[in-house]
Amino acid sequence: MANVEIAGLTKTYGTFRAVTDFGLSVRDGEFLIFLGPSGCGKTTTLRMLAGFIEPDGGQVTLGGRDITHAPPHRRNIGLVFQNYALFPHLSIFENVAFGLRRRKQPEAEIRKRVTDALELVELGHLGDRLPKQLSGGQQQRVAIARAIAIRPDILLLDEPLSNLDARLRLQVRDELRNLQKTLGITTIMVTHDQEEAMSVGDRLVLMRAGMIEQVGTAQELYYQPANRFVADFIGRTNFLSGAAIGNMFRSAGGCRCAADGIWVRPPRS
Ligand SMILES: Nc1ncnc2c1ncn2[C@@H]1O[C@H](COP(=O)(O)OP(=O)(O)O)[C@@H](O)[C@H]1O
Ligand SMILES: [Mg+2]
């Protein structure tokens, strides 16, 4: 089981709180999204899960095993970054084989897993090329193949689509979604793009200033936002000040309408 339990995760830089008391249960096989504006702590949280940043407090368990202080290579986590981070002097095949060679897998097993991973991202025919001979979209698919070749318990992706142009971004996004469903790997992806988040994620974790504002499906965040920040961040929202009286809403300007289906919140929530 690759369910992840995160409790009270905290990271402070000097006096600045980058992540505060972050708690969450990630279900086995789930595609979860960390969403929020730039600087809200998405990358810091992901890197604490990967083991590259030591938290100041809190706990992470993976399938019941406490990994809070385990080094990255003991976590069996697949990682994909924004900038592909392929080795320029290694062939595509060897890039994907890298993690398997480090784990000292037998040669026949390496051949099989690399071939399978490249087939999954539809690049089986390009194993002999160098990264610079591939397009950006293809390079990012190699990075994804490399991450899944080690058969990780969890896949962590930090803005994996943001270096791609608009058309490729949609294509790789759909491929990633299909691949995740086919393989059933528990996946956490970071993005600041709400449309991207809503189109691929089973659930979204919307963050602000190092804290979680709301966790839920795209529909839940859209139709039942926990507060004004969520309503503002998700979708295109118009805000009207006024008062709800029974089933009626009366705007500050005197306009009345039925409040049925309108989301009404007290001010300053
Ligand atoms: N090494 C660091 N030293 C000081 N501040 C940092 C460091 N890394 C990140 N931060 C700060 O922590 C906050 C969260 O950063 P980050 O997790 O990268 O945000 P996000 O990925 O959501 O854009 C930002 O305000 C950032 O400037
Ligand atoms: Mg980031």
From TrEMBL:
Coiled coil: none annotated. One of its GO terms (molecular function) is ATP binding. Residues 4-234 form the ABC transporter domain. Keywords: ATP-binding, Nucleotide-binding, Transport. This is ABC transporter ATP-binding protein.
